[in-house]
Protein backbone atom coordinates (compact mmCIF):
# COMPACT_ATOMS: atom_id res chain seq x y z
CA UNK A 1 0.00 0.00 0.00
CA UNK A 2 1.38 3.41 -0.99
CA UNK A 3 2.33 5.84 1.75
CA UNK A 4 0.94 9.36 1.90
CA UNK A 5 4.26 10.77 0.72
CA UNK A 6 4.20 8.47 -2.32
CA UNK A 7 0.61 9.42 -3.14
CA UNK A 8 1.42 13.14 -2.91
CA UNK A 9 4.54 12.68 -5.06
CA UNK A 10 2.50 10.87 -7.72
CA UNK A 11 -0.17 13.61 -7.76
CA UNK A 12 2.52 16.32 -7.97
CA UNK A 13 4.23 14.63 -10.90
CA UNK A 14 0.97 14.24 -12.82
CA UNK A 15 0.06 17.87 -12.21
CA UNK A 16 3.46 19.04 -13.47
CA UNK A 17 2.90 17.13 -16.71
CA UNK A 18 -0.63 18.44 -17.14
CA UNK A 19 -1.51 20.86 -19.92
CA UNK A 20 -3.12 22.97 -17.18
CA UNK A 21 -0.11 22.78 -14.87
CA UNK A 22 0.04 26.54 -14.33
CA UNK A 23 -3.62 26.89 -13.36
CA UNK A 24 -3.38 23.75 -11.25
CA UNK A 25 -0.54 25.26 -9.28
CA UNK A 26 -2.42 28.53 -8.85
CA UNK A 27 -5.41 26.65 -7.47
CA UNK A 28 -3.37 24.42 -5.16
CA UNK A 29 -1.51 27.48 -3.87
CA UNK A 30 -4.83 29.28 -3.33
CA UNK A 31 -6.45 26.51 -1.29
CA UNK A 32 -3.35 25.61 0.69
CA UNK A 33 -2.20 29.16 1.50
CA UNK A 34 -5.74 30.57 1.78
CA UNK A 35 -5.22 33.56 -0.52
CA UNK A 36 -5.00 34.24 -4.26
CA UNK A 37 -1.52 35.22 -5.43
CA UNK A 38 -1.58 37.10 -8.78
CA UNK A 39 2.23 36.94 -9.13
CA UNK A 40 2.92 33.49 -10.57
CA UNK A 41 6.65 33.76 -9.82
CA UNK A 42 5.75 33.65 -6.14
CA UNK A 43 3.38 30.71 -6.66
CA UNK A 44 6.02 28.87 -8.67
CA UNK A 45 8.58 29.25 -5.91
CA UNK A 46 6.65 26.54 -4.01
CA UNK A 47 6.80 22.89 -5.04
CA UNK A 48 3.65 20.95 -5.77
CA UNK A 49 4.69 18.48 -3.06
CA UNK A 50 4.90 21.15 -0.36
CA UNK A 51 1.60 22.73 -1.38
CA UNK A 52 -0.24 19.39 -1.51
CA UNK A 53 1.21 18.34 1.84
CA UNK A 54 0.08 21.61 3.40
CA UNK A 55 -3.37 21.20 1.83
CA UNK A 56 -3.74 17.69 3.23
CA UNK A 57 -2.53 18.61 6.72
CA UNK A 58 -4.89 21.59 6.98
CA UNK A 59 -7.95 19.53 6.02
CA UNK A 60 -8.43 16.64 8.44
CA UNK A 61 -11.37 15.09 6.56
CA UNK A 62 -12.28 14.54 2.92
CA UNK A 63 -15.41 16.63 3.44
CA UNK A 64 -13.25 19.52 4.63
CA UNK A 65 -11.16 19.25 1.48
CA UNK A 66 -14.23 19.14 -0.76
CA UNK A 67 -15.78 22.18 0.93
CA UNK A 68 -12.57 24.16 0.59
CA UNK A 69 -12.14 23.30 -3.09
CA UNK A 70 -15.76 24.19 -3.79
CA UNK A 71 -15.52 27.53 -2.00
CA UNK A 72 -12.30 28.41 -3.81
CA UNK A 73 -13.60 27.56 -7.28
CA UNK A 74 -16.77 29.52 -6.62
CA UNK A 75 -14.73 32.72 -6.22
CA UNK A 76 -12.79 32.37 -9.47
CA UNK A 77 -13.35 33.32 -13.08
CA UNK A 78 -13.05 30.51 -15.65
CA UNK A 79 -14.90 28.15 -13.33
CA UNK A 80 -15.35 25.56 -16.07
CA UNK A 81 -11.57 25.06 -16.16
CA UNK A 82 -10.90 25.27 -12.45
CA UNK A 83 -13.73 22.97 -11.49
CA UNK A 84 -12.13 20.17 -13.54
CA UNK A 85 -8.83 20.72 -11.76
CA UNK A 86 -10.63 20.71 -8.41
CA UNK A 87 -12.45 17.49 -9.31
CA UNK A 88 -9.13 15.88 -10.25
CA UNK A 89 -7.49 17.02 -6.99
CA UNK A 90 -10.41 15.73 -4.95
CA UNK A 91 -10.39 12.34 -6.68
CA UNK A 92 -6.63 11.85 -6.38
CA UNK A 93 -6.30 13.18 -2.83
CA UNK A 94 -9.20 11.04 -1.60
CA UNK A 95 -6.72 8.17 -1.39
CA UNK A 96 -4.98 10.05 1.42
CA UNK A 97 -8.11 9.75 3.54
CA UNK A 98 -8.86 6.07 2.99
CA UNK A 99 -7.28 5.02 6.29
CA UNK A 100 -9.27 7.55 8.31
CA UNK A 101 -12.16 5.79 10.04
CA UNK A 102 -15.54 7.28 9.07
CA UNK A 103 -18.10 8.21 11.74
CA UNK A 104 -20.15 5.24 12.91
CA UNK A 105 -23.11 6.99 14.48
CA UNK A 106 -24.90 8.08 11.34
CA UNK A 107 -28.05 6.29 10.29
CA UNK A 108 -26.97 6.67 6.67
CA UNK A 109 -24.03 4.34 7.24
CA UNK A 110 -26.54 1.53 7.70
CA UNK A 111 -27.75 1.90 4.12
CA UNK A 112 -26.85 -0.77 1.64
CA UNK A 113 -24.44 0.56 -1.00
CA UNK A 114 -26.41 -1.30 -3.67
CA UNK A 115 -29.55 0.64 -2.73
CA UNK A 116 -27.85 4.02 -3.07
CA UNK A 117 -26.28 2.88 -6.33
CA UNK A 118 -29.65 1.87 -7.74
CA UNK A 119 -31.32 5.15 -6.70
CA UNK A 120 -28.45 7.18 -8.16
CA UNK A 121 -28.65 5.27 -11.45
CA UNK A 122 -32.41 5.84 -11.66
CA UNK A 123 -31.98 9.57 -11.14
CA UNK A 124 -29.08 9.86 -13.59
CA UNK A 125 -31.19 8.14 -16.27
CA UNK A 126 -34.06 10.59 -15.77
CA UNK A 127 -34.58 13.27 -18.48
CA UNK A 128 -34.48 15.94 -15.75
CA UNK A 129 -31.47 14.50 -13.92
CA UNK A 130 -29.70 17.87 -13.79
CA UNK A 131 -32.62 19.64 -12.11
CA UNK A 132 -33.15 16.73 -9.72
CA UNK A 133 -29.51 16.94 -8.65
CA UNK A 134 -29.76 20.72 -8.34
CA UNK A 135 -32.71 20.43 -5.95
CA UNK A 136 -30.99 17.68 -3.93
CA UNK A 137 -27.88 19.89 -3.75
CA UNK A 138 -29.98 22.79 -2.42
CA UNK A 139 -31.50 20.58 0.28
CA UNK A 140 -28.05 19.38 1.33
CA UNK A 141 -26.13 22.66 1.20
CA UNK A 142 -29.03 24.93 2.19
CA UNK A 143 -28.67 27.44 -0.63
CA UNK A 144 -29.52 27.53 -4.34
CA UNK A 145 -26.56 27.04 -6.70
CA UNK A 146 -26.98 28.06 -10.34
CA UNK A 147 -23.50 27.07 -11.48
CA UNK A 148 -23.75 23.50 -12.77
CA UNK A 149 -19.95 23.18 -12.67
CA UNK A 150 -20.04 23.56 -8.89
CA UNK A 151 -22.81 20.97 -8.52
CA UNK A 152 -20.93 18.53 -10.74
CA UNK A 153 -18.06 18.54 -8.24
CA UNK A 154 -20.30 16.39 -6.03
CA UNK A 155 -21.08 12.76 -6.72
CA UNK A 156 -24.81 12.08 -6.69
CA UNK A 157 -24.40 9.12 -4.32
CA UNK A 158 -22.60 11.33 -1.82
CA UNK A 159 -25.36 13.93 -2.00
CA UNK A 160 -27.98 11.21 -1.46
CA UNK A 161 -26.09 9.96 1.59
CA UNK A 162 -25.83 13.50 2.96
CA UNK A 163 -29.52 14.10 2.25
CA UNK A 164 -30.49 11.03 4.26
CA UNK A 165 -28.25 12.10 7.13
CA UNK A 166 -29.79 15.57 7.25
CA UNK A 167 -33.39 14.42 6.80
CA UNK A 168 -33.81 10.97 8.37
CA UNK A 169 -37.59 10.97 7.84
CA UNK A 170 -39.67 11.41 4.71
CA UNK A 171 -41.85 14.10 6.27
CA UNK A 172 -38.88 16.29 7.15
CA UNK A 173 -37.43 15.95 3.64
CA UNK A 174 -40.79 16.71 2.04
CA UNK A 175 -41.13 19.92 4.03
CA UNK A 176 -37.62 21.02 3.11
CA UNK A 177 -38.15 20.38 -0.59
CA UNK A 178 -41.42 22.29 -0.50
CA UNK A 179 -39.72 25.27 1.14
CA UNK A 180 -37.04 25.29 -1.53
CA UNK A 181 -39.56 25.04 -4.36
CA UNK A 182 -41.48 27.96 -2.82
CA UNK A 183 -38.42 30.19 -3.09
CA UNK A 184 -37.56 29.69 -6.77
CA UNK A 185 -39.07 30.48 -10.14
CA UNK A 186 -40.78 27.70 -12.14
CA UNK A 187 -42.35 26.44 -8.93
CA UNK A 188 -44.88 24.25 -10.71
CA UNK A 189 -42.27 22.29 -12.62
CA UNK A 190 -39.96 22.01 -9.62
CA UNK A 191 -42.91 20.68 -7.65
CA UNK A 192 -42.79 17.76 -10.06
CA UNK A 193 -39.02 17.48 -9.51
CA UNK A 194 -39.63 17.33 -5.74
CA UNK A 195 -42.26 14.62 -6.23
CA UNK A 196 -39.78 12.67 -8.34
CA UNK A 197 -37.14 12.88 -5.61
CA UNK A 198 -39.61 11.67 -2.99
CA UNK A 199 -40.61 8.79 -5.25
CA UNK A 200 -37.02 7.71 -5.87
CA UNK A 201 -36.13 7.97 -2.18
CA UNK A 202 -39.20 6.11 -0.96
CA UNK A 203 -37.02 3.00 -0.60
CA UNK A 204 -34.86 4.81 1.97
CA UNK A 205 -37.84 5.83 4.07
CA UNK A 206 -39.97 2.70 3.90
CA UNK A 207 -39.51 1.95 7.62
CA UNK A 208 -39.57 5.43 9.11
CA UNK A 209 -43.33 6.00 9.26
CA UNK A 210 -43.66 4.01 12.45
CA UNK A 211 -41.41 6.43 14.33
CA UNK A 212 -42.81 9.18 16.51
CA UNK A 213 -42.40 11.68 13.74
CA UNK A 214 -45.18 14.07 14.58
CA UNK A 215 -43.95 15.49 17.88
CA UNK A 216 -44.40 19.23 18.27
CA UNK A 217 -40.70 19.75 18.88
CA UNK A 218 -39.82 18.68 15.37
CA UNK A 219 -41.44 21.80 13.95
CA UNK A 220 -38.63 23.87 15.41
CA UNK A 221 -36.00 21.72 13.74
CA UNK A 222 -37.09 22.40 10.17
CA UNK A 223 -34.37 23.84 8.01
CA UNK A 224 -35.06 27.40 6.94
CA UNK A 225 -33.96 27.61 3.32
CA UNK A 226 -32.86 29.39 1.07
CA UNK A 227 -30.26 32.11 1.52
CA UNK A 228 -28.12 32.48 -1.57
CA UNK A 229 -24.71 33.69 -0.40
CA UNK A 230 -25.41 37.44 -0.77
CA UNK A 231 -26.05 37.08 -4.49
CA UNK A 232 -28.84 38.93 -6.35
CA UNK A 233 -31.88 36.84 -7.31
CA UNK A 234 -31.02 34.55 -10.22
CA UNK A 235 -33.11 33.29 -13.09
CA UNK A 236 -34.36 30.38 -11.05
CA UNK A 237 -33.89 31.71 -7.52
CA UNK A 238 -35.67 34.59 -5.82
CA UNK A 239 -35.86 35.39 -2.15
CA UNK A 240 -39.49 36.41 -1.75
CA UNK A 241 -41.21 35.69 1.52
CA UNK A 242 -44.62 35.94 -0.13
CA UNK A 243 -43.90 32.86 -2.24
CA UNK A 244 -42.73 30.99 0.83
CA UNK A 245 -45.92 31.90 2.68
CA UNK A 246 -48.10 30.75 -0.20
CA UNK A 247 -46.32 27.42 -0.26
CA UNK A 248 -46.67 26.77 3.49
CA UNK A 249 -49.85 24.83 2.82
CA UNK A 250 -47.70 22.20 1.09
CA UNK A 251 -46.29 21.29 4.49
CA UNK A 252 -49.41 19.24 5.13
CA UNK A 253 -49.05 17.09 2.00
CA UNK A 254 -49.89 13.45 2.50
CA UNK A 255 -46.89 11.15 2.37
CA UNK A 256 -47.93 8.03 0.49
CA UNK A 257 -46.04 5.70 2.77
CA UNK A 258 -48.39 6.63 5.66
CA UNK A 259 -51.50 5.17 3.95
CA UNK A 260 -52.53 1.69 5.13
CA UNK A 261 -51.75 -1.21 2.84
CA UNK A 262 -54.25 -1.50 0.00
CA UNK A 263 -55.67 1.96 0.72
CA UNK A 264 -53.99 4.94 -0.95
CA UNK A 265 -56.52 7.63 0.02
CA UNK A 266 -59.29 7.50 2.64
CA UNK A 267 -61.81 6.74 -0.12
CA UNK A 268 -59.51 5.14 -2.70
CA UNK A 269 -58.33 1.54 -2.82
CA UNK A 270 -55.36 0.39 -4.84
CA UNK A 271 -57.37 -2.18 -6.79
CA UNK A 272 -59.96 0.49 -7.70
CA UNK A 273 -57.24 2.77 -9.06
CA UNK A 274 -55.93 -0.15 -11.13
CA UNK A 275 -59.37 -0.70 -12.66
CA UNK A 276 -59.66 3.00 -13.52
CA UNK A 277 -56.25 3.01 -15.16
CA UNK A 278 -57.13 -0.01 -17.28
CA UNK A 279 -60.32 1.67 -18.49
CA UNK A 280 -58.49 4.88 -19.40
CA UNK A 281 -55.82 2.97 -21.31
CA UNK A 282 -58.52 1.12 -23.21
CA UNK A 283 -60.48 4.17 -24.39
CA UNK A 284 -57.86 6.92 -24.73
CA UNK A 285 -54.35 7.47 -26.01
CA UNK A 286 -52.38 6.83 -22.78
CA UNK A 287 -49.59 9.30 -23.63
CA UNK A 288 -52.04 12.10 -24.45
CA UNK A 289 -53.95 11.38 -21.24
CA UNK A 290 -50.71 11.52 -19.22
CA UNK A 291 -49.66 14.80 -20.87
CA UNK A 292 -52.99 16.44 -20.02
CA UNK A 293 -52.90 15.13 -16.46
CA UNK A 294 -49.26 16.23 -16.02
CA UNK A 295 -49.87 19.77 -17.30
CA UNK A 296 -53.01 20.04 -15.14
CA UNK A 297 -51.45 18.80 -11.92
CA UNK A 298 -48.27 20.86 -12.14
CA UNK A 299 -49.82 23.83 -14.03
CA UNK A 300 -47.02 23.75 -16.58
CA UNK A 301 -46.71 26.55 -19.14
CA UNK A 302 -48.21 25.09 -22.37
CA UNK A 303 -45.29 26.55 -24.33
CA UNK A 304 -42.95 24.18 -22.51
CA UNK A 305 -42.74 20.69 -23.95
CA UNK A 306 -41.92 17.99 -21.41
CA UNK A 307 -42.98 14.86 -23.26
CA UNK A 308 -39.80 12.98 -22.41
CA UNK A 309 -40.48 13.71 -18.73
CA UNK A 310 -44.13 12.70 -18.98
CA UNK A 311 -43.09 9.34 -20.40
CA UNK A 312 -41.25 8.64 -17.14
CA UNK A 313 -44.45 9.22 -15.12
CA UNK A 314 -46.78 6.33 -14.49
CA UNK A 315 -50.48 6.84 -15.12
CA UNK A 316 -51.17 5.48 -11.62
CA UNK A 317 -49.06 8.22 -10.01
CA UNK A 318 -50.63 11.00 -12.08
CA UNK A 319 -54.16 9.82 -11.26
CA UNK A 320 -53.30 9.58 -7.58
CA UNK A 321 -51.79 13.08 -7.59
CA UNK A 322 -54.91 14.42 -9.33
CA UNK A 323 -57.19 12.93 -6.68
CA UNK A 324 -54.92 14.15 -3.89
CA UNK A 325 -55.33 17.70 -5.22
CA UNK A 326 -59.04 17.69 -6.14
CA UNK A 327 -60.57 14.74 -4.28
CA UNK A 328 -63.80 13.24 -5.70
CA UNK A 329 -65.01 16.60 -7.01
CA UNK A 330 -65.45 15.68 -10.68
CA UNK A 331 -66.81 19.16 -11.45
CA UNK A 332 -63.62 20.75 -10.14
CA UNK A 333 -61.50 18.22 -11.99
CA UNK A 334 -63.44 18.92 -15.21
CA UNK A 335 -62.75 22.67 -14.98
CA UNK A 336 -58.98 22.18 -14.66
CA UNK A 337 -58.70 19.43 -17.28
CA UNK A 338 -60.68 21.39 -19.88
CA UNK A 339 -58.57 24.47 -19.21
CA UNK A 340 -55.48 22.40 -19.99
CA UNK A 341 -57.08 20.76 -23.02
CA UNK A 342 -57.77 24.15 -24.58
CA UNK A 343 -54.19 25.31 -24.21
CA UNK A 344 -52.11 25.30 -27.38
CA UNK A 345 -49.73 22.61 -26.17
CA UNK A 346 -47.07 22.13 -28.81
CA UNK A 347 -47.62 18.95 -30.81
CA UNK A 348 -51.18 18.36 -29.56
CA UNK A 349 -54.48 19.12 -31.26
CA UNK A 350 -56.99 20.95 -29.05
CA UNK A 351 -59.97 19.00 -30.40
CA UNK A 352 -58.28 15.68 -29.63
CA UNK A 353 -57.34 16.98 -26.19
CA UNK A 354 -60.96 17.87 -25.38
CA UNK A 355 -62.11 14.45 -26.57
CA UNK A 356 -59.53 12.80 -24.30
CA UNK A 357 -60.68 14.91 -21.35
CA UNK A 358 -64.34 13.97 -21.97
CA UNK A 359 -63.35 10.29 -21.97
CA UNK A 360 -61.38 10.77 -18.74
CA UNK A 361 -64.33 12.51 -17.10
CA UNK A 362 -66.76 9.72 -18.07
CA UNK A 363 -64.41 7.21 -16.44
CA UNK A 364 -64.01 9.44 -13.36
CA UNK A 365 -67.78 9.78 -12.92
CA UNK A 366 -68.33 6.03 -13.00
CA UNK A 367 -65.31 5.54 -10.78
CA UNK A 368 -66.33 8.06 -8.10
CA UNK A 369 -69.88 6.67 -7.84
CA UNK A 370 -68.56 3.28 -6.72
Characterize this entry briefly.
The chain is an all-alpha fold. The protein has helices at 4-17, 21-33, 40-43, 48-57, 62-73, 79-93, 113-124, 129-141, 148-151, 156-166, 170-182, 187-200, 241-247, 270-283, 286-298, 307-310, 315-326, 330-341, 350-369, and strands at 263-265, 268-269.
Structural write-up:
The chain has 370 residues and is mostly helical. Helix content is 59%, strand content 1%. It is built from 19 helices and two strands. The chain has helices spanning 4-17, 21-33, 40-43, 48-57, 62-73, 79-93, 113-124, 129-141, 148-151, 156-166, 170-182, 187-200, 241-247, 270-283, 286-298, 307-310, 315-326, 330-341, 350-369, and strands spanning 263-265, 268-269. Strands 1-2 form a two-stranded antiparallel sheet. Helix 2 (21-33) packs parallel to helix 4 (48-57) and helix 15 (286-298) packs parallel to helix 17. The model is unreliable at 103-109 and 209-264 (pLDDT under 50).
